[in-house]
Amino acid sequence: MFPNAFQYEAPTSVDEAIRLLTEYGYDSKILAGGQSLLPMMKFRIAAPAVLIDVNGIDDLKGWREENGKLRIGALTRHADAEHATELRDRYPLLSRTARWIADPPIRNRGTICGSLVHADPGSDWGAAMIALRADVEVQGLEGSRLIPIDEFFVDTFATSLEENELAVAVHVPTPNGPVAARYMKLERKAGDFAIAALAVHVVMGKDGRVSEAGIGIGACGPIPLRAAKAEAALVGQPLTEETISTVSKLVPEDADPADDLRGSADYKRDLLRVFAKRALLEIAEELQERVGAE
Amino acid sequence: MALRQTEMRPMGKPIGRKEDPRLIRGKGRYVDDVMLPNMLYLCIVRSPYAHARIRSIDTSAALAAPGVKLVLTGEDLASMNLAWMPTLAGDQQMVMATGKVLFQYQEVAAVVAETRAQAEDAAQLIEVDYEPLPVVVDPFKALAPDAPVLREDKEEKSNHIFHWEAGDREETETLFRDAPVIVSQKVRFPRVHPSPLEPCGCVADYDPAKSKLTLYVTSQAPHVHRTVLAMVSGLPEHQIQVISPDVGGGFGNKVPVYPGYVIAVAASLKLGTPVKWIETRTENVASSHFARDYHMTAEIAAREDGKVLALRVKTIADHGAFDAAADPSKFPAGLFSIVSGSYDFKAAFVEVDGVYTNKAPGGVAYRCSFRVTEASYLIERVMDVLAQRLGMDPAELRLRNFIRKDQFPYKSPTGWVYDSGDYEKTLKLALDRIGYEELRKEQAEKRARGELMGIGISTFTEVVGAGPAHLFDIVGIKMFDSAQIRFHPTGKVIARLGVRHQGQGHETTFAQIIAEELGLSADDVLIEEGDTDTAPYGLGTYASRSTPTAGGAAALCARRIREKARKIAAHLLEVSEDDVTWDGIAFSVKGLPGRSVSMKDVAFAAYTNIPEGLEPGLEATYYYNPPNLTFPHGAYIAVVDIDKGTGAVKVRRFLAVDDCGNVINPMIVDGQVHGGLTEGFAIAFMQDIPYDADGNCLAPNWMDYLVPTSADTPHWETDRTVTPSPHHPIGAKGVGESPNVGSPAAFVNAVVDALSPFGVEHIDMPIFPWKVWSILREHGISE
């Protein structure tokens, strides 16, 4: 359980990290939390010649709200999102997702951006960021650009990042109205990858109808997926039992699960339906209470 | 609340564990903590194929790699006559493959280098040219006449290993012929793995100057390991010292001798330096010995009022590539014939056929007394099938069929003589404590509302504590055990035993036994196990045998010391021996309670003031050959709720009422029960090692072989009844394995009970949510 020998670099600026990425290309890997990379290296499934440890780059730390978005720096750990009480009202999906990730030691080290870049289809953040319609901010030699989350995941373990680009942050739109969210996941045991997972994010308009809906599907395809049909059926509707029933049946239509040790594709599709129904019922109740209180 | 170790008369009290301060603070000394000067590191190259001929192995690049001192292949071991080794089941196993490999992850080559990283780097450079062969994964297909023969080394050209039977075939057939009710159920006990937190490993240190081999090894049975090593290596046994340091869990995984140990020894013999080998998690799960993998069919013949008459069982046992079960020599299916369980069957007939397949070898007794778990699970499961078929409450069916208290000692239809038990009392206590009638009412109400709730009962009987020696041996060595007690002049005691604990708490419980017998506190007694140079010979700790065997030896050894102490006390009290009485704390003069001497006074006198004609010193050794096994039992009840949407099962309550005879330390017994229930829970709901058609292991590490954490584990409720063993010196039985043996059936029975309105009679373990969902879907149930 020892990795192959590797060279270790610890840049202190984003520019230096990009320079190293440019120099070493695919022979290098960025080390942030290391919670997927290091086990893969120990199994010798991954054998990068150079590790570029970005933990010393202060610019990648912390989050701030700007231009109607929450910008989450690349070194934000899962546990930061889990415990950030100041984000819970406007970005409830962050803590609701974070608490489902693996176990506390992994949440203390692993990072949100690292998880996205790793692009495991079972990743919890993949589904959540799809629901949140996030953008990934990446920086390269030519400067930075925003990649919409729907264009970010290309295939299992593959993203649209260029070889010498570094993911520096993820941007989550600030909701425009009362918001509620749920992350639903079933595991074979605590800390296991999901059998199936669903992230649901709903913003309620002043008219009592859904103004924004985001539904991300995890562990049911080669990449995290968007339940686009269900989202479309949800926007503009009041959260009645009838709407919820209709919408939850549409969620599995955008999933692409496979049969494996965790269950059959049919089973996973049905789990998504059940998750959607439960999540939306809870969200409806929560938003009703919230709006009633206001 | 734990009591202090200075407590006098400690027997039966919750004395705080003496080993905890060391282990909890990370100050234990495990095998990977052993660091010796000039120590080298071993890494094993394993087969990616389940069945393949080895055309060639190219080791040249590895030999040239930095830090590499030695590369070994099966051919090298063959030249040392070490390519094969005996298994504890009387089969032989390849240490490293010669000719062909028989399972994925089999040992093919080994690299020894200055650092572990260098060894792993060089291992990658070894090139093996394989010619894949047809793979046999299914044990039933392995028995087909056209199946490829896996074991070319065996005389018999067949994958069939053994046929074994117990009971009376004719009488059983007769009772079946006339029985008004017959139920039959196929039941699989999945392939599971003990998976201790600490994997296996060793440091082999051959000192050419002294011609002595010291082997530090994660062993549950260090003395047996030494004997096997002497037999395999040809080294004289007195020139081998096996030291089993702190062991991070065993659960049966650390009973066998593994190829890695022999390879490390061979490397140390060749190099004359210490060689360390520590398994990775994957090596432990995928190559060290698995447990269970029994394909069983049970039939019960009964009367319509539920009285059982006869039991018939047929089993195919998948042993993988080598029969590496750790069973006593005359018992290729272990003690599986205990399968008639707690019930008074008139006759039983049990057959087991062992089969070779292209899978990792086994199967060891995982927290289980040699296949007792398979037997208990089967009978407890099938009793529920019978109850369901008859429309009878499973508790009522059990009460109607229990062996009655007045029938003990009870001779079972397969020949066991149960020492003692009171099954009715134990079950009634469990039913009462869990509130059985109210739960059944609640269940009826929930069913009316369409909710799924289940109650599962398991009233198992175990058979633990092998010997007696006339019945049981391992590689010919009779299954007794031993204790040696030595008083120091100041009245403090060191006691050494032939067993080797791995979390059972011997440092505390055996100190309690000895302290109780000698009027001391547990604090006065140091327990030492695991070093073959100092401890008396013993067979080791597994099969819940330590208390039944070594515990008995400890008590009898202490009594032997007390006999001599009485003579010394008489001398100190200046009376004749007949006038001396022992009150549990001190010797005094009959009728003169004021005149007394403590055991400490006696110990001091044994070295300073010995009566004429008596040997100085105060010590004794006792080799105890138990007259029979002990038969702990219990009544377990699980209450589950099923999520109709996801198929997930939630264990709402679990009550374990155990009867393990007299209890030495109730806190430690509770801890044992909690641990075993957690393992039983894991087996019932999440553990299996499946293989694909090419023999690829699909759960080779803890990513897919699931080990629960506290986040998964239900709350355990425990209680006890006490039916002492009539033959054990302190009336105790074993307990460590009861919860693993008894609980799987309670969990599965509860889930089946929840689904019984749909006609479900059985679900094979592990009960993953998808299995339940599929059943619900078949019956049109969904959220």
Q: Could you give the topology of this structure?
A:
The complex is a heterodimer of chains A (294) and B (783).
Chain A lengths: L6 E3 L4 H11 L3 E4 L5 H6 L7 E4 L9 E4 L2 E5 L4 H6 L8 H7 L5 H6 L2 H7 L5 H9 L2 E6 L2 E6 H4 E3 L2 E2 L6 E8 L5 E9 L6 E11 L5 E9 L6 E2 L1 H7 L6 H10 L14 H29 L1
Parallel strand pairs in A: 1-3, 2-3
Antiparallel strand pairs in A: 4-5, 5-10, 6-7, 6-10, 8-9, 11-12, 12-13, 13-14
Chain B lengths: L19 H5 L15 E7 L5 E7 L1 H5 L3 E6 H6 L4 E3 L5 E3 L5 E2 L5 E7 L2 H8 L3 E6 L6 H4 L17 E8 L1 H10 L2 E12 L8 E7 L4 E6 L4 H12 L6 E4 L15 H13 L3 E4 L2 H7 L2 E13 L5 E11 L28 E9 L6 E3 L7 H19 L3 H8 L8 E2 L5 E2 L4 H12 L1 H14 L2 E7 L14 E2 L2 E2 L2 E7 L5 E5 L8 H13 L6 E5 L16 H28 L6 E3 L3 E4 L2 E7 H10 L10 E6 L8 E10 L6 E11 L6 H20 L31 E4 L17 H18 L13 H10 L5
Parallel strand pairs in B: 1-14, 12-13, 15-18, 16-17, 25-26, 32-33
Antiparallel strand pairs in B: 1-7, 2-6, 2-8, 3-7, 4-5, 9-17, 10-15, 11-12, 11-14, 15-16, 19-20, 21-31, 22-23, 24-25, 24-30, 27-28, 28-29, 31-32
Helix pairs in contact in B: 10-18, 14-15, 15-16, 17-18
Short description:
With 294 residues, chain A is an alpha+beta fold. Chain A is built from 11 helices and 14 strands. In chain A, the strands form 4 sheets. Chain A has a 5-stranded antiparallel β-sheet with strand order 4-5-10-6-7. A 4-stranded antiparallel β-sheet of chain A has the order 11-12-13-14. Chain A has a 3-stranded parallel β-sheet with strand order 1-3-2, covered by helices on one side.
